Amino acid sequence: MSKVWKVAVLGAAGRMGSEAVKAVNTAEDMDLVAALGSSDSLDEVVESGAEVIVDLTVPDVTEKNVRFAVEHGIHAVVGTTGWDDQKVANLRDLLTQHPQVGVLIAPNFAIGSILATEFAAKASKFFESVEVIEMHHPNKVDAPSGTAVHTAHKIAEAREEAGVGASPDATTKDEGGSRGAVVDGVHVHAVRLRGLVAHQEILLGDAGQQLVIRHDSFDRASFMPGVLLGVREVAAHPGLTHGLDGFLDLS
Ligand SMILES: NC(=O)C1=CN([C@@H]2O[C@H](COP(=O)(O)OP(=O)(O)OC[C@H]3O[C@@H](n4cnc5c(N)ncnc54)[C@H](OP(=O)(O)O)[C@@H]3O)[C@@H](O)[C@H]2O)C=CC1
Ligand SMILES: O=C(O)C1=N[C@H](C(=O)O)C[C@H](O)C1
Predict the structure, then answer these.
(1) pTM given for the model
(2) Distance between CA atoms of 137 and 134, rounded to whole angstroms?
(3) I need a surface site. Which of 23, 30, 144, 168 has the fewest CB within 10 A?
């Protein structure tokens, strides 16, 4: 009999959380021991004997939830957005005091999205210009998306390593932020539209040519294999892993 993971889902009544509850309940190597909403106490996680939490809550509370888990020796798989540099640095500090605990922060659990980000970062040193467009359902509370921020970061890293300069841009007058947010020097545009789930395009331009790398999540089912992989792997990776690509062989 293989290991059966005791899992607590936080944000269990939400769009992602409710899918995760179904996915964990369907996985033979997992046992859903707690499903928490916003009015439940985190003490339930400890009382349930959970070995791993899956955090799919809201940007304002995810840091508190993850800190609680780490302080109680519980691993964490985190899909919630809002992990800025300061929060990530604080978490790294905390994990040094709990070296046996693993935390995965996954800006996106969908394999296609992870590959799109990877391909875009690889391609970006060959093109003078690069911009990101993320498109989501209108109930999303944060912009730009965590995936777009992560993608911009990876692109910026790859271009810096290759010695590629900033994308050319003659704009001197931008009425109302028409050129979007600038994340690590990469312009990021956010669309919110009824009917959408989660979509991203990376536009790469050079003299006389354009490459567009696009990923679409049409259903939240697309995220579930990644969530389950995270639960199965996180304990084997103590410390912080930022991006599910850390658990995949993309070489
Ligand atoms: N990494 C990935 O692949 C993906 C990540 N996401 C991210 O996941 C997060 C959740 O998205 P989504 O499901 O659409 O959002 P929802 O608003 O549908 O769900 C959030 C849930 O969290 C609950 N919640 C709020 N505070 C707490 C708390 N303190 N403890 C427990 N539960 C709490 C809310 O409950 P209540 O209604 O009672 O307030 C709600 O049910 C977002 O940050 C989103 O960007 C989304 C899709 C994919
Ligand atoms: O809120 C969402 O829906 C999503 N959030 C994540 C993000 O901000 O990148 C992941 C995915 O894009 C869906």
Answers:
(1) 0.97
(2) 10
(3) 168
